[in-house]
Amino acid sequence: MMNKKLSPEDAFYENLTLGLIRTLSNVPRVCNVTLERRQPLNACQLVNWEQRHCVYLPEDMKKFYLSSDGFILNWSYQYAPNDIRRVGHIHFPHLLQVTLLRENIETTSSHSSNSTAVPNSNSDVVGAAGSSQSLPAPIATGKDKWGNATPIITAKSKIFEINNVNEVAKVCMLYESTSSNNPKFYLLELSTLSWQFLADTFSEYLRMAIAHLGLPYWELCFSTCGLPSWTEQLFLLLAPHLLEEHEPRRGRVLNPACEHPYNIIDPNIFRGKPKSVAKATATSTKQNHK
Fold first, then answer.
1. What is the pLDDT of residues 121-158, one digit of tens each?
2. What is the pLDDT of residue 8?
3. DSSP secondary structure, 93-138, as one string
4. Could you list the residue range(s) of the whole structural domain that residue 83 is in?
5. Does residue 286 lie in a domain region?
6. Distances (CA, A) of 169 to 88, 110, 161, 219, 235
7. What's this model's pTM, rounded to 2 decimal places?
8. Which element (helix H / strand E) includes 85?
9. Label partner for 124 (CA 20 to 30 A): which of 16, 152, 161, 279?
């Protein structure tokens, strides 16, 4: 039997997820792989978001949202014949859901610095709320647990929440200055307000989510608190190499040796869906309203 030819829209999401849907569908006990597709933003909506927050989105992120206003990929795992649970999850929010987190960080930092934080004499981080209020020591250590530089938070910094990870951490897009259009992506651990570096670019963060198969709370692989035990069991079952002590992702090695190949996202896939798809969607919408 010949393979069914993919529609332009199917091909777009196949390329966007680097074939992850097909890969997961072939993994034993993984089932109910679903992808929530979304319409693209128009340029006006994107500019409105930038003007509201007084920052410029990086080019790869702009192209992503002009192609699809986020997406959600879910999958389930069959623990027993009658025990199927949804565990896998990749969530890229609607752009309107990418919200400013800065005020919350300032408030929490202020309370922490007045109670438990010990000043760090080696810190070169400026207090977020002003010169008289310093951020707590965990934020100002200069290096995360993997040796990557932690961000310098100043009055010009802007922090946006991308995802909440099990209420213990947040994935943040951080502009160290509003004049920059190259934000970096960090994991903010809420218990200590410490930063762990995740990715230099939006495309890299997207690729990391796919490389980790959307396994639950995969971002906590890069945290100091680590994965919940039940999640670690899933990693050991489905992707044990991701837990190796010297796994290249831990050291942020982006060009590893050939025995650890990486799929690369082609920026050309970040484009508007073909006109034929857009017309078909519009026709379907009109028919549904009749």
1. 333 333 333 333 333 433 444 888 778 888 888 888 99
2. 82
3. --GGG-EE-HHHHHHHHHHHHHHTPPP-TT--PPPSSBTTBPPPGG
4. 8-99+143-242
5. no
6. 18, 18, 10, 9, 19
7. 0.73
8. strand 83-92
9. 161
| Residue 24 resides in a domain | yes
Residues 228-282 pLDDT 10s:
999 999 999 888 888 876 455 444 433 333 343 344 455 455 555 555 445 554 4
For 58, 69, 170, 205, the CA distances from 173, given in Å and listed in that order, are 11, 17, 10, 10
pLDDT digits (tens, 9 = 90+) for 62-99: 999 999 999 999 999 999 999 999 999 999 999 999 99
Q: Which amino acid is at 287?
A: Q
Query: Cβ distance 7 to 277 under 8 Å?
Result: yes
The residues, any chain, with a CB within 8 Å of residue 9's CB and separated by 6 or more, are 37, 273, 274, 277
Position 211 in a domain: yes
pLDDT at 154: 86
CATH number at residue 170: 3.40.1580.10
Are the C-beta atoms of residues 268 and 67 closer than 8 Å to each other? no
Nearest-Å Rg of the Cα atoms of the chain is 21
Domain count, the chain: 1
User: How far is the C-alpha of 15 from the C-alpha of 202, rounded, in Å?
Assistant: 16
> Residue 107 domain-assigned?
no
**Residue closest to 216 by CA, chosen among 235, 198, 197, 199:** 235
